[in-house]
Design a protein that fits this description.
The complex is a heterotrimer. By secondary structure, chain A is mostly helical. Chain A is about 85% helix and about 0% strand. Chain A has 2 domains: about 35 residues; about 210 residues, MetI-like fold (Orthogonal Bundle). The longest helix of chain A is centred in the C-terminal third of the chain and has 39 residues. Chain C folds into 2 domains: about 150 residues, P-loop containing nucleotide triphosphate hydrolases (Rossmann fold, 3-Layer(aba) Sandwich), CATH 3.40.50; about 70 residues, no CATH class. The chains are: A mainly alpha, B mainly alpha, C alpha/beta.
Chain lengths: ~250, ~260, ~280
């Protein structure tokens, strides 16, 4: 698939989603939804409001910090457990179990530990995001073909050369998949955190709008978040595919 | 000495968890973690036992688990059906593939308020959310399983003059079964997450709601045991399904 | 077929490139105190500049032997010396290895692959580029210099790995069933190329193969290994001229050689699959 035909799928999907949305709106009516056109218009208007941008900045800040921590923590844990076989075997199932629990249940503990506000949001984003990064990194390190490591040894590579010239490039495609998923999950975690721990930010706007039954804001904020998440994920996915092709 | 090589990591893991719990216990009793943040693990287990004995929250537990089961069952049935259909249609596959590759990125909970407005405040919005998260995981794995049926097996079926139905039942289904199991495992996890999350955000019942309620009322004696209970259910079910999954894959030399 | 290979006279210490004495390798096994006895005791003198092939039944430890000589694994007992220095714990300078599995580096081009080890040699850019260009030329990869391994066939990828080894100018080249994944005809041609390389580089070659005809065609001497634990049952001299190519398969002596090899190996192969030797 190359050139224009590669776009056919995503275009079909987006068009399909908009059509479904419009249909749903026609069925449910103004009390429940806004149409795509209305939402887009309101979003533009919202972006013009002065009160909007501080909220966006708050979310952006929390997300950026949470993402940075998730990446560093995830990679560090992933490499450590990937290299040290026994530790990996002991801890990986724990990480896998952690991945599948409903993390909102831990939320009260996070709040009690960090209090309300930014630290709690960041913590919540991190608990969501670091796990896939760590898990994929463990897998990536373990999946490096042994023959490539032997090649490095035959060529007389020391530890530094091994890591930078063999292990890291070999593991990169799979690590990147973990980063891609970690990105999305950190965003979700941060937003969820914002819905409860904050008086500012997009998550708070959403919760507030739910309470006030402000359908316009609910639709707009959901729309913006979804578009952002989907767009970035799609870009990361394209990079991921390229890495896997040449790696 | 004939010890199986797998027991060592498992042993270490159990020791680790026990050590961690013991450390928590010590920190709580010493007051490093104060009582309002978290009671000692021993106390949490006591409270859990009491809850289970008095049956105070059986209603909530039953509600959550039954809603989860409903969402899961619907997701598996719809997921398999949709997966089969999408697998056959190139157009559908092309259109939906980007969705399948990015679905985990969509903040599904953001749609929850929408569903409440549309469906009202009953159980349906939660089930819909859980269903949405769950069915996509199922579809992705059904597609994966169908993709991986080796062409040579299908050729063998043709040589044996099997009808399409027979091929589906005797070749395709068993061949894809491990992946269907993986899909079901993920679907169950997502259904559980979806239900609990929705209950937490906005609901009038269920375990998630009870936790949120206990939190706002500073009722650690109810909140922590419930959290532990949810974690225990999640870990246990996932572990059991995981063992089953691993065994099936190992039998086929797939992992 | 009467002229001898033009290496140094056999038997003199100066002519010995690598020496193995009383080599034994055992692997630890869970639940067994003494482990699995995989290889040895084994003695071998590799002569400088010779082409030595090893054949043996599956599981006899051929690959283990190669890894021991390369320094990728350590002996449990015995000694290995390369150029009069003990091989222990690391791969000595001057040894190159071509592996059985595809060792081409997927994220580098063919040129990048070939140049992969050169940064450690301390050579200048000009010399490095010259060596890479030569290797591309010798291995017939000139047209693919900027391609990625994924775009090449299995045989081409193996050539990339050989080129990568050559560019380091090794004095002893170890090859572990390098053509195992290729079809028979490609193997015969690659064998010819290997002979050409051998002559041009004057390196010592140590080749492991399960294909008796390959060993018979390529080698000066062939070591026949027993079933596990692998020991050297005998060494057969082929007496081929140094400038041979794959057409030696047409010689009657070739047929006699392969017959001789199979005669020695048949019993061992049966043993290795668990069946007793017949009469």
């Amino acid at each position: 698939m190359s050139g224009l035909s590669a776009w056919r799928g995503p275009i079909l999907l987006v068009v399909g989603l908009f059509v479904a949305w419009e249909l749903l709106y026609l069925l449910a009516g103004d009390v429940a939804l806004r149409s795509p056109a209305q939402t887009v218009r309101f979003t533009i208007e919202l972006l013009g409001r002065e009160t909007f941008w501080p909220n966006l900045a708050e979310t952006a800040k929390a997300f950026a910090v949470a993402l940075a921590i998730s990446i560093v923590l995830g990679l560090a844990i992933g490499f450590a457990l990937g290299f040290h076989r026994l530790s990996g075997e002991v801890f990986e199932p724990i990480l896998v179990a952690f991945y599948s629990i409903p993390k909102l249940t831990l939320y009260p503990i996070v709040l009690l530990a960090f209090g309300l506000g930014m630290p709690a949001k960041i913590a919540f984003g991190v608990i969501h995001g670091f796990v896939p990064i760590a898990l994929f990194t463990i897998g990536a390190v373990g999946n490096v073909k042994p023959v490539l490591i032997k090649t490095g040894r035959v060529l007389g590579f020391g530890a530094f050369d091994m890591v930078t010239r063999v292990l890291f490039p070999a593991a990169l495609p799979e690590i990147f998949t973990g980063l891609r998923i970690g990105f999305a999950l950190t965003l979700i975690g941060t937003l969820l955190g914002e819905m409860f721990a904050s008086q500012r930010g997009l998550g708070y706007m959403l919760m507030n709008a739910i309470g006030l039954h402000n359908v316009d804001i609910i639709m707009s904020v959901t729309f913006m978040i979804t578009v952002f998440a989907a767009t970035v994920s799609a870009i990361l996915l394209a990079v991921d595919r390229r890495l896997h092709r040449s790696g | 000495m004939n010890r199986s090589p797998m027991s060592r990591p498992l042993l270490l893991r159990i020791l680790l968890i026990l050590a961690f719990t013991a450390a928590l216990e010590a920190l709580c009793r010493l007051g490093v973690i104060d009582r309002f943040t978290m009671p000692p693990p021993s106390r949490i287990l006591e409270d859990l036992a009491r809850l289970l004995v008095t049956g105070k929250l059986y209603g909530a537990i039953a509600k959550t688990l039954s809603n989860c089961a409903i969402a899961f069952a619907l997701a598996v049935v719809a997921g398999v059906a949709a997966g089969v259909v999408i697998h056959k249609s190139r157009l559908l596959r092309q259109a939906l593939d980007p969705l399948f590759a990015t679905y985990y990125a969509i903040p599904v909970f953001a749609f929850y308020p929408l569903f409440i407005i549309i469906f009202g405040l009953g159980d349906i919005p939660q089930i819909v959310i859980a269903f949405m998260m769950s069915v996509i995981a199922m579809i992705v794995n059904v597609l994966n399983g169908l993709d991986r049926v080796p062409a040579v097996l299908l050729k063998t079926a043709r040589m044996a003059r099997m009808s399409p139905l027979e091929t589906a039942l005797r070749m395709t289904l068993p061949s894809a079964a491990p992946y269907l199991l993986t899909g079901a495992k993920l679907a169950l996890a997502y259904a559980f997450i979806g239900i609990i999350g929705s209950e937490f955000i906005m609901s009038r019942g269920g375990m998630g709601f009870e936790i949120a309620f206990a939190y706002t009322n500073f009722d650690n004696a109810v909140m922590y045991p419930l959290i532990v209970l949810i974690l225990a259910i999640s870990v246990a079910v996932n572990a059991l399904l995981g063992i089953w999954e691993k065994r099936i894959l190992a039998r086929r030399g797939l992992r | 077929m009467t002229s001898k290979p033009s290496s140094e006279a056999p038997g003199t210490p100066a002519g010995v490139h690598a020496r193995l004495r009383d080599v034994i390798k055992t692997f630890p096994a869970p639940g067994r105190e003494r482990g699995v006895h995989a290889l040895g005791p084994l003695d071998l003198d590799l002569k400088k500049g010779e082409f030595f092939a090893v054949v043996g039944p599956s599981g006899c430890g051929k690959s283990t032997l190669l890894e021991l000589v390369a320094g990728l694994a350590t002996v449990s007992e015995g000694t290995i010396a390369f150029e009069d220095r003990p091989v222990h714990g690391g791969v000595p300078d001057g040894i190159g290895v071509v592996f059985q599995e595809d060792a081409s580096i997927p994220w580098l081009t063919v040129t990048g692959n070939i140049a992969f080890g050169l940064h450690k040699t301390g050579l200048g850019d000009k010399e490095r580029n010259r060596r890479v260009a030569d290797a591309l030329d010798i291995m017939g990869l000139g047209d693919f210099a900027d391609s990625y391994p994924a775009q090449l066939s299995g045989g081409m990828r193996q050539r990339v790995c050989i080129a990568r080894t050559l560019v380091m100018q090794p004095r002893l080249i170890l090859l572990d069933e390098p053509f195992g994944a290729l079809d028979q005809q490609t193997r015969l041609l690659m064998g010819e190329e290997l002979l050409k390389l051998w002559r041009e580089t004057s390196a010592t070659i140590f080749l492991i193969t399960h294909a008796l005809d390959e060993a018979a065609m390529l080698a000066d001497r062939i070591g026949v290994m027993s079933a596990r634990p692998g020991r050297l049952l005998s060494i057969i001299e082929t007496d081929w001229p140094r400038d041979r190519d794959s057409r030696v398969v047409e010689e009657p002596a070739f047929g006699a050689l392969t017959a001789q090899l199979w005669h020695k190996l048949r019993g061992e192969s049966l043993k290795s699959i668990g069946r007793a030797q017949g009469p």
